[in-house]
Fold this sequence. Notes:
The radius of gyration is 17 Å and the shape is globular. It has a seven-stranded mixed sheet, sandwiched between helices. A two-stranded antiparallel sheet has the order 8-9. Helix 1 packs across helix 2, helix 4 (114-126) runs parallel beside helix 5 (153-161) and helix 5 packs across helix 7 (212-235). It is α/β, with parallel strands linked by helices. The chain has seven helices and nine strands. Strand 8 and strand 9 form a beta hairpin.
Amino acid sequence: MTSEPxxxxxxxxxxxxxxxxxxxxxxxxxxxxxxxxxxxxLWLDQHKVPASGAVLVVSNHISKYDPLVLxxxxxxxxxxxxxxxxxxxxxxxxVGFFARGCRQIPVERNTIRAGDSLKAAREALDAGEMVAIYxxxxxxxxxxxxxxxxxxxxxxxxLETRCPVLPVGQWGANHFMPGKKLxxxxxxxxxxLLAKAGDLLxxxxxxxxxxxxxxxxxxxERMMEAITRLTAELRxxxxxxxxxxxxxxxxxxxxxxxxxxxxxxxxxxxGVL
Length: 273
C-alpha cells in the first residue's frame, strides 16, 4: 500500500464484545487491542460474512500472527470461528489454555489421527458453527508471499458437508511477523492489517461428481483462486499466473498441482486463536 489507511471496521451486533465463551471474548478483546497497536485495521466487505449458520472460512496463511488478524476480522463481523490448529499447541501453557477455552480444533499432524480434526470440524459445521481453515496447510513458502497450492482437507470438508464456503484474503501480518519461524515482531513503523471477504463459493456442481479425486482438485483450485484474487486486491498488485507448490519447491501452472490423494489424512498446520 502506498499510504497508511485509516482504520475501517464495519462491525455489527457488538459480537466482538458479546457471545462466545468467556475465554474467547477475552482473547477477542486482546486481539483487537494488539491489532490496533500494530496499525490501522482495514476490514472490507464484512457484510459478506454470513450472520448465522454453518460456514467454512478459507483464507491465505502468511504469518504465525495472522490467525489473530483473521479471528479479529471474523469476530468484528459477528461470528466466533473455530480454527484448526496443530495439536502440539495444546501442550503450550498459554496458547493451550486459550485453545481449549475457545474450543479450537487440534490436528494430530502426520498421524493416523489427523482425520479426527476433520471429523470435529464436520460436527461443528453440522451444529451451525463457523469453522476456519487454511487450505495451504502451512504458512506460504512462496517467495513473494502469494497463496500456494492447496492440500485436500478444506475441499474435502466443503464437499462432504455441502456448507457455504467463504473465501477471505488478508495482508499485513506478514510485515509485522514475517517468515515461518517465530521471530521478534517488527513493531515500527506501524503496519496496516487488511482483510477482505469474497462472495460465497458455489461448489454445488461438484457435490455428486463421479470422480471424487477430480472434484477435490477443482474445489481446491476454486478456493485458492478466490483467495488469491482477494489478496491481490488488498496488495493492489497483479497476482502471478502460476502458483507455488511447496512439494516441488517451484511455481507450477494453476490446476496442475501435486495434491495428495483425497483419502489421505492431510498434515494440516493452520494457525489457532
